[in-house]
Each structure stands twice: as structure tokens, then as C-alpha cells.
């Protein structure tokens, strides 16, 4: 059996907004060693990305509290040591103008991510902006804008099966940053590229993997389980090849198509529930009746 999944995913609050692209064709299957094949088009994921982008869902704030304790100092504006280990050391103007403060990152997607599935793997490309803002802890002063970067991001992932759930794991992430606007003078893109990559590697990849690990359940019933499932990647398509086992939740009596009940047992059961027992067939005119006749006896059930 083969099932093909290439429907469009809409945002709940804007169900009439359609994606401006069409579904690609799906490859033909020549394998027959599994009972069931799920074909999942990358078009489904791309329409989801488009809907999320259109509804401004793909935005992310990263603060020091989001990072592991050992990495939080990277967003400080003041740090000690000959080798700079914080953003204020890499961009001295920030450290001089805003000492003992903390920088926050704001990530905005400029375009919807695009997933591309090939036999070599699954890749996602997107672009957007990263803004740096500074604030001083313990004060009621608002954030101050520092620098804005354009960002191009590429990541690749493995596709895995866990029971009947398909999920992913990020294996590669690459950022290319370029300064667009600065309120603190010239910024060396190489230094800031290294710094932001470090912050994103310790936060963004684990967060993406957390989302991806939840996965998407395949459309099967509760009484069906997958056996020997494997993932095959093809052009624009993720293929799940699997065997199937069926286990009914309620065990039914399967002792033949018709179960034999001795007539004597049935007669005794009828006798216990009958209102009258007569030796001959009689028809009641006052209430509905059921009459049974046999070579042994006759019973009338009034109800």
C-alpha cells in the first residue's frame, strides 16, 4: 500500500492565505519489500514555513538567561583578560559606552525558510536579520539599539523514525553575517560572526532539536504499529517504508463464524424470561408477541 501526502498547511487565523508555489511531482516507487509506504512531500513543510513567516511567528529573542551558565558571559559588555571573551571586548565601543551591561539578540526572518529534500539529505535555507540591543541590569532604562546584521542561514538535518513519529535532528548549521547598520562605529564582521555563532550554537541548535524531536505523527490508528520502518530520501520527498502490525484493543470471540448454542440451553433461557408457557400457538390481541414453535415445545413471549 502507498499513501501520498502533499497537502498545503494553513495558519489557523489566516486560513485563506495560500502559499505562492505549487507542489512538485513525487517519484515513483519501485520497491515492494515493505507492506506500507508513506510519501511525504517537502511542499507540506514549505507551506508551513510560509504560513509561519506570514504570521510573524519566526522571531526569536536570545538573552543571557537563555544560554548555559558557562556561556552567559559572552553577552556582557565588560570582561577581563587579554583575549576578549565578551561582546564588549570584541567591540570596544560597546564596552566603553555601555559598561557593566548585557546585550540581547533579536532574530527576525526576512523570508520564509525553504526545505530542499534530495537523496543526499535534507537542507533548509533562510535569511533575515539579527539586531543587538543593550540594557543595564537593575535599572528601569529601556533597551538601546547597537548593531544590525543581515544573516543567511543554512542547516542540514537527519530524518529519523521513533515508533510512528517522524522527527529530525540538526547536524549542521552555518551563518553568514554582514553589518547593515551600527550605532557604535565600525564593526569587524569576522569577530562578531564568531561571537554570534557561538551564542547560537549553544542555544539555537539545541532549541531547534528540541522542536524537531517532538516530530510529526504519521496518520495511523491506535491499534496499528509500525515494524522495520526505514527512511528513504528522494527528490522533494521523504519516504517511510515500513511493515505493519495490527493488535485490536478489544479481544473478540473468534470461535468460528457462527457459534453453536445447544437448543436445550436456548429453550431454558427462553423459559426463564417468558411470561406465559402454553402447549399450543396463541396470538395475543392486547400486546405485541413473538411465537416460537419446535418439535419439543411451544413458547409465547409477551412484552
Automatic annotation (TrEMBL):
<dbReference type="InterPro" id="IPR001124">
    <property type="entry name" value="Lipid-bd_serum_glycop_C"/>
</dbReference>
<dbReference type="InterPro" id="IPR032942">
    <property type="entry name" value="BPI/LBP/Plunc"/>
</dbReference>
<dbReference type="Pfam" id="PF02886">
    <property type="entry name" value="LBP_BPI_CETP_C"/>
</dbReference>
<protein>
    <recommendedName>
        <fullName>Lipid-binding serum glycoprotein C-terminal domain-containing protein</fullName>
    </recommendedName>
</protein>
<dbReference type="InterPro" id="IPR017943">
    <property type="entry name" value="Bactericidal_perm-incr_a/b_dom"/>
</dbReference>
<feature type="domain" description="Lipid-binding serum glycoprotein C-terminal">
    <location>
        <begin position="30"/>
        <end position="242"/>
    </location>
</feature>
<dbReference type="GO" id="GO:0008289">
    <property type="term" value="F:lipid binding"/>
</dbReference>
<dbReference type="GO" id="GO:0005615">
    <property type="term" value="C:extracellular space"/>
</dbReference>
Amino acid at each position: 500500500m502507498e499513501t501520498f501526502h502533499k497537502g498545503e498547511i494553513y495558519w489557523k487565523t489566516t486560513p485563506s492565505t495560500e502559499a505562492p508555489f505549487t507542489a512538485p511531482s513525487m517519484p515513483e516507487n519501485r520497491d515492494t519489500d515493505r507492506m506500507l509506504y508513506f510519501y511525504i512531500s517537502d511542499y507540506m513543510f514549505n507551506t508551513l514555513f510560509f504560513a509561519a513567516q506570514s504570521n510573524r511567528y519566526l522571531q526569536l529573542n536570545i538573552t543571557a538567561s537563555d544560554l548555559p551558565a558557562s556561556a552567559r558571559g559572552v553577552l556582557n559588555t565588560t570582561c577581563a583578560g587579554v583575549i576578549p571573551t565578551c561582546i564588549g571586548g570584541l567591540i570596544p565601543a560597546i564596552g566603553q559606552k555601555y559598561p557593566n551591561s548585557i546585550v540581547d539578540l533579536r532574530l527576525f526572518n526576512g523570508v520564509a525558510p525553504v526545505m530542499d529534500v534530495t537523496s543526499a539529505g535534507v537542507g533548509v535555507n533562510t535569511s533575515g536579520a539579527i539586531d543587538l540591543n543593550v540594557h543595564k541590569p537593575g535599572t528601569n532604562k529601556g533597551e538601546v539599539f547597537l548593531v544590525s546584521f543581515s544573516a543567511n542561514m543554512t542547516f542540514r538535518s537527519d530524518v529519523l523514525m521513533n515508533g510512528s513519529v517522524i522527527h529530525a535532528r540538526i547536524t549542521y548549521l552555518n551563518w553568514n553575517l554582514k553589518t547593515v547598520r551600527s550605532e557604535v562605529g565600525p564593526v569587524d564582521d569576522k569577530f562578531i560572526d564568531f561571537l554570534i555563532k557561538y551564542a547560537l550554537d549553544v542555544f539555537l541548535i539545541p532549541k531547534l532539536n528540541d522542536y524537531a524531536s517532538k516530530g510529526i505523527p504519521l496518520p495511523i490508528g491506535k491499534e496499528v504499529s509500525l515494524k522495520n520502518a526505514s527512511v528513504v530520501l528522494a527528490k522533494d520527498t521523504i519516504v517511510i517504508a515500513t511493515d505493519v502490525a495490527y493488535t485490536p484493543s478489544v479481544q473478540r470471540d473468534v470461535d468460528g463464524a457462527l457459534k453453536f448454542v445447544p437448543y436445550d440451553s436456548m429453550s431454558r433461557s427462553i423459559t426463564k424470561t417468558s411470561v406465559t408457557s402454553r402447549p399450543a400457538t396463541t396470538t395475543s390481541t392486547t400486546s405485541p408477541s413473538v411465537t416460537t414453535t419446535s418439535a419439543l415445545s411451544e413458547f409465547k413471549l409477551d412484552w
